[in-house]
Design goal:
By secondary structure, the chain is an alpha/beta fold. The chain is built from 14 helices and 20 strands. It is 37% helix and 21% strand. A 7-stranded mixed β-sheet has the order 14-15-16-13-12-17-18, with helices on both faces. A 6-stranded mixed β-sheet has the order 9-8-7-10-11-19, sandwiched between helices. The structure holds succinic acid.
């Protein structure tokens, strides 16, 4: 059925990809990939485990020798070719994504373009890896710093952005000279495998980019964090799993990059441009049906504009059309699983039982067959509710009230998370003041569409460590070596 929807049916791959070969599980096991809009099985994919992951790591280690013989310019050209192929095939990639992940087609297409931008960016950065010459401490010595690939990278990626979270790890790894073994989310392996097919067509050498799909996440994760040949682990996902991976990786002192959970506040001040604030908070909340780490989790609105904001925001939210992401009229798709729907329902129930009131949505009515939840607005939310503390990961917007700037900053920082925060105000001094006081890795002022390949994406506190994208993003894949030349 997927095949009939694609212009290039050979992008639909259902085996793992190790050392340039498409492989089945040794025991023949497969797992189901389900369309969350219909609850139908759309493909069965090879269920690889620890054994295949170990093989992939060892072959990935050998592959680095081949890649290291290419000049930075040659590596750049191969990455650029991969970017071109992803862009040429963006509609097919977007269809695959909508079918396995649920997001509406326009958003899926946008994600493929966003994901491709990391490949293009790091194709360029591959040519710009510089060392350094340090001041000498004596006349017969010279001290140098050279940058080298850190080694094999183990990557674990989530289902919410099935292309972009992969390219923003794989592209810098390859640009730096590292090979990579990727475990994509079991919910969305098809996007990852299609990317691998295009990487192979682009000329990325066998073994440099390997994909190990599987449901045995702990077993695969143990290899990626425990094998001595893996030198770095990069993960996007929950804080709970991130902590486990960090503890495992510590046993062999691996470098880690962790992009973990968020609890993003949007602060709307009395002096904000109200239409901009409503639009910004809407986009930040309902992108990908609320399943984004930098989604607006809490909307904090100053008392003077609270009623106006709630009313304008509710009106916009009521206009969403929930449905299958491939249907033209849909403006929001399903959640990823039934459990996700249950989690969101329970957060809403908790808030309502503690005094919050619904102004839109509130349940999973309206769209049959899949894992849908109506876009929901809750007013009069407060700090006693679970929704103030937990990552919602669904289309529910709780609106809190504050009186003073001091109170707003305290509420915004009252969380163990620190990924993204947003504020709306026309006062420039306040923009500065609050941006500096927010304990977050990223702050959007009068803007919530903050992501792109040129910015350092990442968080502080329990939202993780390391930055992805930007001119800083390559450093996480490079090791610094000091060389002392004596007897000059
Ligand atoms: C995420 O959910 O962490 C990714 C969001 C983005 O890249 O904008």
């Amino acid at each position: 059925m997927i095949e009939q929807m694609l212009s290039d049916t050979s992008l639909l791959k259902t085996q793992g990809f190790i050392n340039g070969q498409w492989v089945s599980a040794e025991n023949g096991a497969e797992f189901d990939v389900v369309n969350p809009a219909s609850n139908e099985v759309i493909a069965r994919v090879a269920d690889l485990g620890g054994k295949e992951t170990k093989q992939a790591i060892e072959l990935a280690h050998d592959a680095m020798a081949v890649w290291s013989k290419k000049t930075p310019k040659e590596k750049s050209a191969v990455l650029r070719k991969w970017f071109d192929l992803v862009m040429e095939n963006k509609d097919d990639l977007a269809k695959i994504m909508t079918l396995e992940q649920g997001k509406i087609f326009a958003e899926a297409r946008g994600e493929v373009i966003y994901g491709a931008s990391y490949i293009e960016w790091f194709a360029e950065e591959a040519k710009r890896i510089y060392g350094d010459v340090l001041p000498s401490t004596s006349t017969d010595r010279r001290s140098l710093v050279i940058k080298q690939p850190i080694g094999v990278v183990g990557a674990i990626t989530p289902w919410n952005f099935p292309v972009a979270m992969i390219t923003r790890k794989v592209a810098p790894a390859l640009a730096a000279g590292c090979s990579i073994v990727l475990k994509p989310a079991a919910e969305t392996p098809l996007s990852a495998l299609a990317l691998a097919e295009l990487a192979q067509r682009a000329g990325i050498p066998s073994g440099m980019f390997n994909v190990v799909p599987g449901v045995a996440a702990a077993e695969i994760g143990e290899q990626l964090t425990g094998h001595s040949l893996v030198k770095k682990v990069t993960f996007t996902g929950s804080t709970r799993v991130g902590k486990i991976l960090m503890a495992q990786a510590a046993q062999t002192v691996k470098r880690t990059s962790m992009e973990l959970g968020g609890n993003a506040p949007v602060l709307v001040f009395d002096d904000a441009d109200m239409d901009k604030a409503v639009e910004g908070a809407l986009a930040a909340k309902f992108r990908n049906a609320g399943q984004t780490c930098i989604c607006a989790n809490r909307i904090l609105v100053q008392s003077g504009v609270y009623e106006e904001f709630v009313s304008k925001y509710t009106e916009k939210v009521q206009a969403f059309v929930v449905g299958n992401g491939l249907a033209e009229k849909s403006t929001m798709g399903p959640l990823i699983t039934r459990i996700a729907v249950e989690n969101v329902s329970s957060l809403v129930e908790d808030a309502l039982s503690k005094g919050a009131k619904l102004t839109a949505g509130g349940d999973n009515s309206g769209a049959e067959g899949g894992y849908f939840f109506q876009p929901t607005v809750i007013r009069d939310a407060d700090q006693s509710m679970r929704i103030a503390k937990e990552e919602v990961f669904g289309p529910v917007a709780p609106i809190f009230r504050f009186d003073t700037e001091e109170e707003a900053v305290a509420m915004a920082n009252d969380t163990e998370f620190g990924l993204a925060a947003y504020l709306f105000t026309k006062d420039q001094s306040r923009s500065w003041r609050i941006s500096e006081r927010l304990d977050y890795g990223m702050v959007g002022v009068n803007e919530t569409a903050i992501s792109s390949e040129v910015i350092p994406f990442g968080g502080v506190k329990e939202s993780g460590q390391g930055r992805e994208g930007s001119k800083y993003g390559l450093e996480d894949y490079l090791e610094m070596k000091y060389v002392c030349l004596g007897d000059i």
